[in-house]
Amino acid sequence: MSTDAPLVIAMDGPSGTGKSSAARRLAGSLGAAYLDTGAMYRVATLHALRAGVDLTDAGAVDHATRELPLVIGTDPTHELVELAGEDVRVEIRGAAVTGAVSAVSAVPAVRERLVAAQRALVEQAGRIVVEGRDIGTVVLPAADLKVYLTASAQARAARRADQDGSADRAAVLADVQRRDHLDSTRVASPLRPADDAVTVDTSEIDLDGVLDRLHALVQQVEGVRQ
Ligand SMILES: Nc1ncnc2c1ncn2[C@@H]1O[C@H](COP(=O)(O)OP(=O)(O)OP(=O)(O)O)[C@@H](O)[C@H]1O
Ligand SMILES: Nc1ccn([C@@H]2O[C@H](COP(=O)(O)O)[C@@H](O)[C@H]2O)c(=O)n1
């Protein structure tokens, strides 16, 4: 099979399971594009925060994010995230946005617009790994392969604390659990595995091990399609 054959891989799971790291590397090795949909919700959140809207008011969040001058790249070797031409890669990962993003992503009108943009990017790319919370269930229900990454909250919090250089592991764990709860209990497109997703628990596997598992799954899918 030629390396430019269409291939759509959906990767979902809670925070800190390794979705971004694994999806980016998988895309690079498959010669595919990569889409970080969490970054899109983070940009919408930054835009709403800058507009000073009350994030508990869904109508106000909807209104404030209707015009969202967002540019997101899909090259797995080059991260590009811009809001009105400004590079916001660092700011969207900060505490203010991380603390507010679940409120913004729970607003159905925000999701509708971002899902439409995500589908358009997938259509353009043809061969792509897309990661988020609702990719297998809502955004791309016909994906060729759906993977749901999990890991214990403790493992995820330890990774996040190492990544951010935080000594307060209890606070990081509480934040991880708070976001898990909000993302999985919201009414609009809650975080959950698609019925046909393959679950991979990354608690005890390093990133190379996760990549081995993902490559084996891709080979199975490509074998079936040949
Ligand atoms: N299997 C693994 N073992 C150990 N550390 C890992 C593993 N996978 C990822 N990591 C590390 O965990 C941290 C979080 O990974 P990553 O950002 O890829 O997770 P994520 O699921 O995309 O999180 P979020 O949804 O919050 O963006 C990173 O520092 C990454 O290097
Ligand atoms: N498909 C998605 C992706 C993300 N979200 C929301 O965005 C938050 C940030 O995601 P990260 O992957 O960058 O941590 C996440 O907590 C969700 O609230 C989403 O709803 N759907």
From TrEMBL:
The keyword Phosphoprotein does not apply. It is an enzyme of class 2 (transferase). Transmembrane segments: none annotated. The gene is cmk. Belongs to the cytidylate kinase family. Type 1 subfamily. Gene3D superfamilies: P-loop containing nucleotide triphosphate hydrolases. ATP binds at G13, P14, S15, G16, T17, G18, K19, S20, S21. Its main location: cytoplasm. Keywords: ATP-binding, Cytoplasm, Kinase, Nucleotide-binding, Transferase. The keyword Coiled coil does not apply. It comes from the Bacteria. Residues 9-219 form the Cytidylate kinase domain. GO terms for molecular function: kinase activity. InterPro entries: Cytidylate_kin, Cytidylate_kinase_dom, P-loop_NTPase. Its EC number is 2.7.4.25. It comes from Rhodococcus antarcticus. CDD domains: CMPK. This is Cytidylate kinase. It is found in: Cytoplasm. It catalyses: dCMP + ATP = dCDP + ADP; CMP + ATP = CDP + ADP.
